[in-house]
Specification:
- The structure holds two protein chains of two kinds.
- Chain A is an alpha/beta fold.
- Chain A has two domains: 249 residues, 3-Layer(aba) Sandwich (Rossmann fold); 68 residues, no CATH class.
- Helix content of chain A is 31%, strand content 23%.
- A seven-stranded mixed sheet of chain A has the order 6-7-8-3-9-10-11, sandwiched between helices. Chain A has a four-stranded antiparallel sheet with strand order 2-1-4-5, covered by helices on one side.
- The relative contact order of chain A is 0.13.
- By secondary structure, chain B is an all-alpha fold.
- Chain B folds into two domains: 72 residues, no CATH class; 230 residues, MetI-like fold (Orthogonal Bundle).
- Chain B has 15 helices and no strands.
- The longest helix of chain B has 36 residues.
- Chain B is globular.
- The C terminus of chain B is likely disordered.
- Classes of the chains: A alpha/beta, B mainly alpha.
- Chains A and B meet through α2 and α3 of A and α11 and α12 of B.
């Protein structure tokens, strides 16, 4: 049973040229107690999706349709007051802290207490004890609670953000590029902290990233997003080893393999389509080496546990063999 | 923090020394000598020499400089040529008037500007903004003397609600700050000049607050505050306004320093007996010691307020920690 089911979600941004459909008909199921990676290139709508789930979109953005069913309630239909009651208590967020996500003029203690007291309803003494406990949990010395964010390193800031996100014991945590600004060593430490705590507290997590290596290291499931849609989803091992969608096949060849032999990195030619006027059929059709006539007209649908939005899912094994040859991806 | 404040204080003392030395040099560079400027040129050579000797002006420049600095350190700014009173006394008489005028108008301007600026940022777009931004700009851009004259014409000459000038009704006298504070007559006289200055000063904090607030409202930590489900009040006041306030505080302290010397126009229009008016009169009548004293006082208050702004900024923004950790 999924704790979060997104159905046909559409998020648009108002622009002078018209509404841009940044998220366009996303279906996504997040099972309880697992980490799901949401992976895709810049501008594919993954961060917008994460923010839409939190109910805080930029001024120009709005949810134009669909459902977000979380613990039995449709968040899209909820009143702002009812929405706020859930916010952070059941559903919290780990930002990319390089982006000034902690208030620069307040000590970490104040920022922890704010959440614990104002949202958690704890007394001050209780909240202080809990703040120390949380810092301990993420591997920070509680003494650092009296520091300001600028006195922290990037990794420490990320740990503090994790502590904040876990403060009220939420059921689901959305992490938006949580390790993107960190070097690989610290990336691994922070991912370990997240994974340990996720397993220990039994929460569900969505990890938004553009880095397939992060997904492979930290996630149980993965959803691949392309041009506002999920194109493939399933258990990490299945998706990365036996990709069904040509885009996923292309992606796996575009990243270096740490443990494998020397390999030629093959880029996917072209750019994603404009989301102002998205194509009617499969959005990857224009870049897909295996494109067929029907791909341009009819959007493919997804079914099953490991699923992909491609008309040629049944031929995936053959296509994978083809995709392994760099020549397949050369511009025509 | 204490060490930092001490360092700043040393800095302040150095600048004060430089300012007073510069003033000394500048006044020695004025053409002619004081005897020609304030006494009759028809004096005989002996009288002139005696006068120069009397003022100590026959001594070598470096000796004059030491005497001047020594006197300055003892608070002795010399005698006014014209009024025959010590400069320090004349300035001390004028200072409370200027300080009160500045404090009242600046505080009112910044209180109004900060609140209105935050509100306008919060309610961006729409009629309120379309009306109030040009209005704030217009009062900011209008010359102070013109604004003052309009207010004088409307509220003093036409209606007689407020006095046309001065700090007190004829026949009344005040000496201390406290006297002024409890005097309704003083506040009644203060109203129009303070209103003029306030209208002139409010534009800067208003526009500055609005601009920084708009910037801060787009910051990631504001998005986070909303995600946390914090109340609107917490988001806007505790996080957005607190961060947007930083540049406004600097502007306030600088404005305070600048106004003490910069009230010249308003003080003249309303015949307000403050430092600015003393300075204008001293310059007009070539009363050098008085002008020199006023200059030093104005420069000192500007520099002091600069330092105060620096220290306040550090208290408000922990990231500014110059010299705190070395």
């Amino acid at each position: 049973m999924s704790m979060l089911s997104v159905r046909d979600l559409v998020v648009t941004y108002a622009t002078r040229a018209g509404p841009v459909r940044a998220v366009d008909g996303v279906d996504l199921d997040i099972p309880a107690g697992s980490i799901t990676g949401l992976v895709g290139e810049s501008g594919c709508g993954k961060s917008t999706l994460g923010r839409a789930l939190m109910g805080v979109l930029p001024e120009a953005g709005k949810i134009a349709g669909g459902q977000i069913v979380f613990e039995g309630a449709d968040l899209v239909a909820l009143s702002p007051t009812a929405r706020r009651a859930i916010a952070w208590r059941r559903l919290s967020f780990i930002p990319q802290t390089a982006m000034n996500a902690l208030d620069p003029v307040q000590r970490l203690r104040a920022q922890m207490l704010e959440v614990l007291v104002e949202r958690g309803g704890l007394g001050k003494a209780e909240a202080l004890a809990r703040a120390s406990e949380l810092f301990h949990l993420v591997g920070l010395d509680p003494i650092r609670l009296s520091d300001y964010p600028h006195q922290f390193s990037g990794g420490m800031r990320q740990r503090a953000s994790i502590a904040l996100a876990l403060a009220l014991e939420p059921a689901l945590v959305i992490a938006d590029e949580p390790v993107t600004a960190l070097d690989v060593i610290v990336q691994r430490q922070v991912l370990d902290v997240m994974r340990n705590l996720q397993a220990r507290l039994g929460l569900a997590m969505i990890l938004v990233t553009h880095d397939i290596a992060v997904v492979a290291y930290a996630c149980d499931r993965v959803a691949v997003m392309y041009a506002g849609r999920i194109v493939e989803a399933g258990p990490v091992a299945d998706v990365l080893e036996n990709p069904l969608h040509p885009y996923t096949m292309g992606l796996t060849h575009a990243f270096p393999d740490l443990y494998g032999d020397d390999m030629t990195l093959v880029p996917i030619d072209g750019t994603p389509p404009s989301l102002l006027h998205p194509p009617a059929g499969c959005r990857f059709a224009a870049r897909c080496p295996f494109v067929q006539p029907r791909c341009a007209d009819e959007p493919p649908v997804m079914t099953g546990d490991h699923q992909a939005a491609c008309w040629r899912v049944d031929e995936a094994a053959e296509l994978r063999a083809l995709a392994a040859t760099p020549a397949t991806w050369l511009p025509k | 923090m204490a060490r930092r404040a001490l360092g700043r204080l040393g800095h302040l003392l150095f600048v004060l020394w430089a300012v007073s030395s510069l003033t000394f040099i500048l006044f020695r560079l004025t053409p002619g000598d004081p005897t020609l400027n304030f006494l009759s040129p028809s004096f005989s050579e002996e009288t002139r020499a005696a006068l120069l000797k009397g003022f100590g002006l026959d001594k070598p420049l470096w000796e004059q400089y030491f005497i001047y600095m020594n006197n300055l350190l003892h608070g002795d700014l010399g005698q006014s040529f014209l009024q025959g009173k010590p400069v320090a006394v004349l300035l001390a008489d004028a200072l409370p008037n200027t300080v009160l005028l500045t404090l009242v108008s600046l505080t009112a301007a910044y209180a109004f500007g900060i609140v209105a600026g935050a509100f306008l940022a919060f309610r961006r777009g729409g009629v309120v903004e379309a009306v109030s931004i040009p209005a704030a700009l217009a009062t900011r851009a209008a010359p102070e003397f013109w604004l003052g004259m309009l207010l004088l014409a409307a509220l003093a000459f036409q209606t007689g609600w407020f006095p046309t000038g001065g700090a007190l009704s004829p026949g009344r006298e005040m000496n201390s700050f406290a006297d002024r504070f409890v005097s309704a007559d003083f506040w009644w006289h203060l109203a129009l000049p303070a209103l003029t200055l306030m209208l002139y000063l409010q534009g800067l904090p208003l526009l500055l607050m609005r601009a920084t607030m708009l910037e801060v409202l787009n910051d990631e930590f504001i998005v986070m505050a909303k995600m946390k489900g914090l109340s609107r009040w917490s988001v806007v006041m505790r996080h957005a306004a607190r961060n947007a306030l930083l540049p406004v505080v600097t502007a306030f302290a600088l404005g305070l320093g600048a106004s003490i010397g910069g009230n010249v126009v308003v003080e003249t229009v309303f015949a307000w007996p403050g430092i600015g008016r003393v300075l204008v009169q001293a310059v007009q009548s070539a009363d050098y010691p008085l002008a020199q004293g006023a200059f030093i006082l104005i420069a000192a208050s500007l520099v002091t307020m600069n330092t105060a702004a620096d220290l306040a900024y550090a208290a408000l923004d922990p990231r500014v920690a110059v010299g705190a950790k070395r």
